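Open question from group meeting: does this chain pack into something compact, or does most of it stay loose? Before anyone orders reagents, we agreed to write out a predicted structure and look at it together. Recording both the input and the output here so the notebook holds the full record.
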Amino acid sequence: MSSVEVPLDLIRLSIDERIFVKCRGDRELRGKLHAFDQHLNMVLGDAEEIVTTREIDEETDEEIVRTSKRTIEMLFVRGDVVILVSPPLRTA
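Structure tokens returned:
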């Protein structure tokens, strides 16, 4: 039976599943979790990276929000940039 006793168990149960990772620098990742370690270094496959940038238009003082997306076949994520990891939604 799979259970969660320590926080990293939740990550362990998400191996070979698509997860969501929020990173520093307004970056978000979605991909299939292949491996991780105690530092939250991760290897994601078929990853999608979304980068959000914000600028202020000097003429109108309005905030301009831009997002860019790219897909990456295999990606190493360094654990010190990770803010949040969301496992796939599980139903009972």
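Observations to bring back to the group:
The chain has one helix and five strands.
The mean pLDDT is 92.
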